[in-house]
């Protein structure tokens, strides 16, 4: 089987390429820059951008299946770059799959496409679409997912997977962002961190992609659906944060910022960044504050039933792996309360 993975040089994309290569598939990747990791795997690299229909066409040509994993991710920033990569890029992938007779398209979506203030607790895929998203990232990913699922038919079978907060060894996103947020041994976070959140180990996410790819090729008529993917082990955000910071070699006290204050700070930050025409995709935002304040975990029954999905690595086992790789830290000490600020902080 010849499989193209868009964004194969990324965190999840590389793990998908690794697993496909290990079972004998001929794997290629569309990425913007050369990757030594992909070169070591023997993955053929097409260098180009999703916004370039010609580059997408050259990458898709000759493939039996496409795993469309590339995206612009973030919690803030102007809509246009997200639209160009996530929506226009997905249109190009669908069009070129049809043009080159590709029969199988697997899309990497995100659980954030259905996130709403107030959170999500044990929800299934039948949840109605969100009428208005808090940021361009979930809005454009939702639009792209809709394009992929609408494209499902006899000539092109499609499925969308919705992993949530992907982590694991080598995570270049979530853990480093937490570490950067620590200031003088303090981590200022909205609320007390008691909200339950499910996450997805990178091997769990890649495993689900291979299951879905196989299922779609064996039974094309089962496509046209989206599936939540996760560890099925929701934990308090405060606990998750503590584990991930230790993996980065950082000890920090959780300092609870009053939710209303955090919301005001996020709104002010968005106004400031919009006025400055800032392209930053990981700045303080209302979307970020809402995700940090509210629960989000999901019913994985559909993935189990239709894909045969079970997480191949548990949360505790994944954390233990991170701990083995983490820099040495002193034993846990009793946490003392933090003094929270009285005025919101706007990022520069």
Which labels suit this protein?
single chain; 348 residues; alpha/beta; 7-stranded parallel β-sheet; two-stranded parallel sheet; 12 helices; disordered C terminus
Describe this structure in words.
The chain is globular and about 60 Å long. Helix 3 packs across helix 4 (about 80-100). The strands form five sheets. It has a seven-stranded parallel β-sheet, with helices on both faces. About 40% of the residues lie in helices and about 15% in strands. By secondary structure, it is α/β, with parallel strands linked by helices. The chain has helices spanning about 10-20, 35-40, 55-60, 80-100, 135-150, 175-180, 200-220, 235-245, 260-275, 285-295, 300-305, 315-325, and strands at about 1-5, 25-30, 45, 65-70, 105-110, 120-125, 155-160, 165, 185-190, 195, 200, 225-230, 235, 255, 295-300.
Q: What's the helix and strand layout?
A:
Layout: E1 2-6, H1 11-22, E2 26-31, H2 36-41, E3 44-47, H3 53-60, E4 65-68, H4 79-99, E5 104-108, E6 120-123, H5 136-150, E7 157-162, E8 166-167, H6 174-181, E9 186-190, E10 196-197, E11 200-201, H7 202-218, E12 225-228, E13 235-236, H8 237-247, E14 253-257, H9 259-275, H10 286-293, E15 296-298, H11 301-307, H12 315-325
Parallel strand pairs: 1-2, 1-4, 2-3, 4-5, 5-7, 6-15, 7-12, 8-11, 9-14
Antiparallel strand pairs: 10-13
Helix pairs in contact: 1-7, 3-4, 4-5, 6-8, 8-12, 9-10
Question: What is the structure about, briefly put?
Answer:
By secondary structure, this protein is an alpha/beta fold. 41% of the residues lie in helices and 17% in strands. Helix 2 links the parallel strand 2 (26-31) and strand 3 (44-47).
